[in-house]
Amino acid sequence: MTTKNKSPAPLFDSLQYINWDFTYQPSEIPQAKEDYKWARGYLYCYKDNLQTFNAYRREIERYLSWCWFIANKSIFEIRRDLFEEYIRFCLAPPLAWIGIKKTPRFIDNDQGLRIPNPEWRPFVATVTKAAYRQGSTPDKHRYALSQKALQEVFAIISSFYNYLIQENIHEINPVSQIRQKSKFLRKQQTKNKIRRLSEKQWHHVFAAAESMAAQNPDKHERTLFIITALYAMYLRISELVASDRWLPTMNSFAKDHNGAWWFTTIGKGNKERQIAVSDSMLEALKRYRTHLNLSPLPTRNDNSPLLRKLSSNNPITCPTYIREIVQKCFDLAIAKLQDSGFKEDADELMNATVHWLRHTGISEDVKHRPREHVRDDAGHSSSAITDKYIDVELRARHKSAKNKTLMP
User: What are residue 249's phi and psi, to 5 degrees?
Assistant: First the structure.
C-alpha cells in the first residue's frame, strides 16, 4: 500500500486517452471503487473545458490518494477535522510525493498500452523563470503551496462534495463545515498585485517584436500580430489557438452596420464575447494580412485560420507554441534592457508570462476607458474583477508617503 514513503500512481489520464467507462479497484479501501466512480463522474462534467478539467483532475487525484493511502478512509467518511488534516498535508507533503518537474501521468509501453508513469508525482516543486535562468533548480525541500493554490484546494474539493450532495449520494460537505478557514487562508487588506509589464518593459517587448518582423518578416510578421492582439484585445492564449470548441478565423474580425469592427471569440467558461477593435489593432490586422498576400481586411466569407503554422495552412493548435513565440520577444527585450542599464526591469521581465500581456492591456485601458467597457471586452464576470486593475488609489497613497521625513 502507498505510504508517505512511496508516491501513489496517477488515477486519471488526459482527456485524449481517458476511458470514462473504465473501472478498477485502486485501493484496499472497500469503498474506493465507488469513490473513483463518482470522482470520475464529477470530472466528466468538465470534459469540454480542458483547462478546468486539468485543474480539477489535479486536486481530485491528490485528494483521493490522500484519503485512501494516508487517512485510510473513503471520501464519504471525511469530516471537518480530517479535511483540516488534508490541508496540513498539502502544505507539507512528504518528499516521496513531490516531483521536481512536470511529467505526463500516463505513458505508452512497448506494446502501445497506456500505463502509469513512474516518474509522475502529485505535487511539483518549482522555481521562478528568473531563478531558473540564473541557475536555480527545483528543490523538494523548498516546496511551498501558494495562497492561490490553497484557495483552489478549498474551492474544488468543496465543489466536488456539493456535486455528491446534488446527486443525492452524500449529505455532508466537510469543507463548508470549516468555519475558520482564515487559519489556513490569509485575509488581504489590499488588492492582489496585478502581474503586468511596466511601460518601459512593454515598449521594449513591442520594439523587439517589430525588430524581429523587420529582420525576418516571413517568420515574425505573425509574431508581431500575436503580441499586438494579446495586448490590444486582452486575449488569452486559448482565444488564439484552435481547439475542439473554438477556431479563430479571419472573419472573427467583422464590421457592424455602424462601420465599427469587432473580434468575436470564445473565452473562459465557453462564453462567446465581442471585443471592440481599436484603430491600432485594425492597422495591425491590415499589416498582417497584407504580408499574407490577402486583402487588407477580411470579408465575412473568409474563414481561413487566423494564425497558421509556417509550414502549412493548418491552424496553430498548441498553446506552448504561442508561449515560445512570445518568449523570444521577451528574451530579446530582456537583452536590450540589460544593455541599456535597466537591470531591475530586465530581471523582473524574466518572470513574465504570456498572460501578463493581457493584464498589461487591461491595466492601461482602465486608466482611460469606462471600466464597464473594459470589463466586457476582457470578458470579466463582474466589475469587481476589473476594479482590481485600477491602481489610482495605490499610486496616490504612495505619492503621499514618498516625501515623509524621519525628523518632523
Answer: -125, 170
* Residue 127, Cβ density class (10 Å: 0-12 exposed, 13-18 middle, ≥19 buried): middle
Cβ neighbors of 72 (< 8 A, separation 6 or more) are 29
CATH of 199-396, one of 1.20.210.10, 1.10.443.10, 3.30.450.40, 3.10.310.10: 1.10.443.10
| Percent of the chain surpassing pLDDT 70 | 90
CA 133, CA 136: separation in Å to the nearest integer?
A: 7
pLDDT of residue 1: 44
Whole-angstrom Cα distance, residue 214 to residue 118? 47
pLDDT in tens, 71-130: 999 999 999 999 999 999 999 999 999 999 999 999 998 888 888 999 999 999 988 777
Helix (H), strand (E) at residue 115: strand 114-116
**Reported pTM:** 0.70
Residue with cell 496616490: 396
**Residue 399 banded pLDDT, cuts 50, 70, 90:** low
Task: Check if the beta carbon of residue 205 is closer than 8 Å to that of residue 333.
Answer: yes
Neighbours of 277 (CB within 10 A): 21
Residue pair 151/162 in contact (Cβ under 8 Å)? The answer is no
